[in-house]
Amino acid sequence: MPRFLVQREPWAKRNSGDRIPHSDKVDPDDPHRADILITLHRMELEGIEIDQKAVDIAKVLVRRRHAPTDAPPPPRQPDLRSVDATGQKRWVYYVRCGYLIKIGTSANLPGRFQSVRPNEVLALEPGGQELETAMHRKFKPLRAGGDYFHPGPALQAHIAELRERLGPPNWAYSVLKDGHDFYPDNQG
To answer: pLDDT tens digits for 35-55?
Structure first.
């Protein structure tokens, strides 16, 4: 018998598309029919009995998903999380290096300050890369280059506010004292 005349296996009829579950419950002219049927199938797999109420819920869900929105999407809020993807606590630091202030972020402050070797640690606040980027944008007019900023009044006020709200950093490890401290009350 030629290969193209071979009869189908009994299991093949099952997948031939002869029956779509619950297709009799959805209007054939509905433009979202396929999505509604898929949603009904997913509901059924979760153990929900498919009655008329379930069909109505599926229709509402699908239509909401496909509804045009007239309003623009809300502006993206910066992610100011202080924990990185590995679960480590991250800090945004403000340190004085000579007569400039470096704004950076690290999960390992001792290691970072060992390489930066600041003259004074001015402030620390919980936050990650996005908070650091937001601070760089905020103080852009004071940028000296890279992560370094001139100590203008706006930046000094921000650091003073952080120190008042979170307390002084009390950091002496890996600091190179030069006698020109912005905050002589720092311990260390």
So the answer is: 999 899 888 888 889 999 999
